[in-house]
Amino acid sequence: MNRDNNRDIIAGRNPVAEALRSGRSVDCLYIAKGELNGSVKVIAALAREKKIPIKEVDRKKLDQMTAGSAHQGVAAAASLKEYASVDDIFALAQKRNEPPFIIVLDEIEDPHNLGAIIRTAECAGAHGIIIPKRRAAGLSFTVGKASAGAYEYVPVARVTNIAAAIDELKERGCWVYGADMDGQTYCSCDLRGAAALVIGSEGRGLGRLVREKCDAVLSLPMKGRINSLNASVAAGILMYEFSRQRSDIRNYGEVQ
Predict the structure, then answer these.
(1) N or C of the chain: less Cβ packing under 10 Å?
(2) pLDDT digits over 34-66, tens only?
(3) For residues 175 and 215, is the Cβ–Cβ distance under 8 A?
(4) Hey, what domains does the chain have and what are their CATH numbers?
């Protein structure tokens, strides 16, 4: 998702397809010459259904539009992706008639990790994600690609202060769980009800003040010689434990 003249350039088959399916305002679909087959043909059909202009262009043009990223022969020019608010996240939970389940990211800097967390959050039924405005990855092209288009469905709110955001979540009825070493074994905790899961930054983990504000700290048992997991992997394991406890998981999607 590159910024070009106040538009987002979305690239890649999954991100473009999900942008179209989600109802995102798309100005134009660009397809590399000779690529109008398979999944690209399905994407073009979606665009035609929504009366979105389609242009066949040289692959070099797509390379230029997407700054040389792996566009898979497809790109779209869309309206800017706006950040949500914390209120939007609670509104989605209310709309689904579910207790809020929110992911809070304490300075996740790797856009691939952020994209992977957004993708898992969408699959695990989280209602939204909160990230800080500074010292953290934002909604970039790389994040959109890594999320496989899931960022179209998960509200992402950006706040000035994560510690203050945690205070607000607690005031609104959420029990806040941090993920860090030396906490309770994650599967021994009751994770039902309104909850927020806080994931710390790569390398540093949770900040001191953020950890102190958590109602409980969850840990994953380490059986090997390495004493930590990648942030997005740890987040995925914990999100699905929340999801499992909140409701029986009977629907399994395709692994890509």
Answers:
(1) C
(2) 887 889 999 999 999 999 999 999 998 898 888
(3) yes
(4) 2-79 (3.30.1330.30), 86-246 (3.40.1280.10)
